Each structure stands twice: as structure tokens, then as C-alpha cells.
Amino acid sequence: MADRAIRSRGFTLIEMMVALAVFALAALALIRLEGATIRGAGILDSTLTGQIVARNVAIEAVTDAKPPTLGLASGTEQNGGKAWTWTRTVAATGDSRILKIDVTVSDSDGRPAGRLTMIRSGSGS
């Protein structure tokens, strides 16, 4: 009886190995989740900054006293320590007094990061 009481105290080696394996699987899952979260934060930062650049370019075209010329224009802007490439397309609408302005922004690798469409008066007022 005394021998049985001694063996029932504590965990067996197999129980410890199973517990360690379960812990290792949980730790690996948490590490993968953290990696995905960090990647998501980087994408969010790039998208947000791209949208800011798109808004800045579009606002320049909308608030300028002279309406932008029809067609395609492109350039680069520095924002957040990065170079952003933008393309602005100005097109006429069904109403000759209104222009449609589309702005697309790409990061330095050419990946699209932001897009914005605005309208403005085509008469300059």
C-alpha cells in the first residue's frame, strides 16, 4: 500500500511530455498570430499613408484656382519618409461644368496603396 501511495504523487514522464507538447503547440500558434498581426500593421500603415498622399494630390487639384487639364498626370511625393508615386486622371463628365479627378497612389515597390475620386467645377470658380 505504501508503494502505491508513493507512485501516485506527481506526474509520470509521459504526462509531462504530453503537457510539454501541448504547451509547445500553443506557443507556436501565438507566435504565428503575432507575426500575422505585425504584417497586418505594416499593411495598414502603408495603406493609410497612401490614402493621405492620394487625398493631398486630389485636394491640390480641387482647390487650385485654375481647373486641371484633362488627361493623365503623374509625379512623386515624399510622405512618412517614403517616396510615393501618384497618377492623376482628369476626365470630363456628362455635365461640361464638372470634372472627375481620379488619383491612384503606389508605394516604392509599385503596389497600389491608395485611390481617391473627387469632382470639381470645370470653370475655375
UniProtKB/TrEMBL annotation:
<comment type="similarity">
    <text>Belongs to the GSP I family.</text>
</comment>
<protein>
    <recommendedName>
        <fullName>Type II secretion system protein I</fullName>
    </recommendedName>
</protein>
<comment type="function">
    <text>Component of the type II secretion system required for the energy-dependent secretion of extracellular factors such as proteases and toxins from the periplasm.</text>
</comment>
<dbReference type="Pfam" id="PF07963">
    <property type="entry name" value="N_methyl"/>
</dbReference>
<dbReference type="InterPro" id="IPR003413">
    <property type="entry name" value="T2SS_GspI_C"/>
</dbReference>
<dbReference type="InterPro" id="IPR012902">
    <property type="entry name" value="N_methyl_site"/>
</dbReference>
<dbReference type="GO" id="GO:0015627">
    <property type="term" value="C:type II protein secretion system complex"/>
</dbReference>
<dbReference type="Pfam" id="PF02501">
    <property type="entry name" value="T2SSI"/>
</dbReference>
<comment type="subunit">
    <text>Type II secretion is composed of four main components: the outer membrane complex, the inner membrane complex, the cytoplasmic secretion ATPase and the periplasm-spanning pseudopilus.</text>
</comment>
<dbReference type="GO" id="GO:0015628">
    <property type="term" value="P:protein secretion by the type II secretion system"/>
</dbReference>
<dbReference type="InterPro" id="IPR010052">
    <property type="entry name" value="T2SS_protein-GspI"/>
</dbReference>
<dbReference type="GO" id="GO:0005886">
    <property type="term" value="C:plasma membrane"/>
</dbReference>
<keyword id="KW-1133">Transmembrane helix</keyword>
<keyword id="KW-1003">Cell membrane</keyword>
<dbReference type="InterPro" id="IPR045584">
    <property type="entry name" value="Pilin-like"/>
</dbReference>
<keyword id="KW-0812">Transmembrane</keyword>
<keyword id="KW-0488">Methylation</keyword>
<keyword id="KW-0997">Cell inner membrane</keyword>
<keyword id="KW-0472">Membrane</keyword>
<feature type="domain" description="Type II secretion system protein GspI C-terminal">
    <location>
        <begin position="45"/>
        <end position="117"/>
    </location>
</feature>
